[in-house]
Amino acid sequence: MPTDPLLSLAAVRAVIKELKVGDEFKIRWADSEDPDVIMSWTCKVTAKPSEDLAHFRSTDSDDPDEDWEIPAFKDNHVPSPTSTDADLDLNYHYLAKTTQVVAGRKSMKSAKLSSYAKSTICAWKPSSWMSWLKPGDLVARKCVVDTLFEQLQIPERINQGSFKTVEDWEACALGEILLSQFDLILVVNNEVRDCPQMERSLMATIVRLCELKVGRGKTGEARTKAMTSVRTAYMGSELHNDPLTKAMLGLPLTNGS
Q1: Predicted local distance difference test score (pLDDT) of residue 112
Q2: What 3-state DSSP class applies to 28?
Q3: Which one-letter DSSP state was computed for residue 128?
């Protein structure tokens, strides 16, 4: 997986200078002694002891009530204007203030639309949300994305530090594929949008996400049975009286087949 380049101390301090108490920011970091393990945290500033130093808390840490400091310097190093990148105790790969929605008419409309979406959209039925995807309507697109990610339990890559299973990584990658498919839908004409090939491409992604969802928390035969039931239900009539397909999928043969 490609890794973001390291941020310099100057770059980190530049972002911190723009932060205020109460601001949220996202960070990807690694222990300088274990640089291959990169953590992703969502954080909130709790104090600003100085212009280029901040204290924060993160719900992604083991202790959400613990105060942390950024930049983090090596033991016995006293931060100063002459501090260098070599004095940092952590590797910083990404640091940015989280964009916060300004309250107002548009945000209230978005909230209403989002609530409506959750009651009408069914993730595994594109016909229930395809019409929402219209060029230029970013609010509707966000509602579709948020609802599908919630219903299909798709983890986002920014939270990869908390991934616990191979399925988390697969679902994350499939979620990113789904987003690229949405972007494609928004730039093609109606003929391409409604063609069978577009539906098959979408369903290949969605059905696999459904399999992963129903398999979560299960192991062994129970997990296999749950995931197979999704594939069987999707294929439907293609399996009817088709012993070869059933045999290839490991499904029981009936009616003397």
Answers
A1: 58
A2: strand
A3: G
Dig out the tokens for 203 from the structure: 């369903």
Q: Is the pLDDT of residue 195 over 80?
A: yes
Q: With 0-12 CB in 10 A as exposed, 13-18 as middle and 19+ as buried, what is 232?
A: middle
The string of DSSP letters for 146-168 reads HHHHHHTTPPPGGGGGG--SHHH
Contact at 8 Å (CB) between 185 and 177?
no
The pLDDT of residue 90 is 93
At 95, list the tokens.
Answer: 């640091």
Interior/surface letters 79-100, b for 16+ CB within 10 angstroms, e for the rest? beeebeeeebebbbbbbeeeee
**pTM, to two decimals:** 0.51
Residues 6-13: what's their mean pLDDT?
93
d(CA 245, CA 239) in angstroms, rounded, equals 6
**How many helices (H) and strands (E) in the chain?**
8, 5
Say whether the peptide bond before residue 2 is cis (omega within 30 degrees of 0).
no
Tell me the H-state helices in 67-137: 105-120
Q: Which residues contact 84 (CB under 8 A, 6 or more apart)?
A: 9
CA 203 to chain centre: 19
Q: Please report the pLDDT score of residue 4 as a whole number.
A: 61
Q: Predicted confidence band at 190 (pLDDT cuts at 50, 70, 90)?
A: confident
pLDDT tier, 242 (very low <50, low <70, confident <90, very high otherwise): low
Q: What is the pLDDT of residue 234?
A: 84
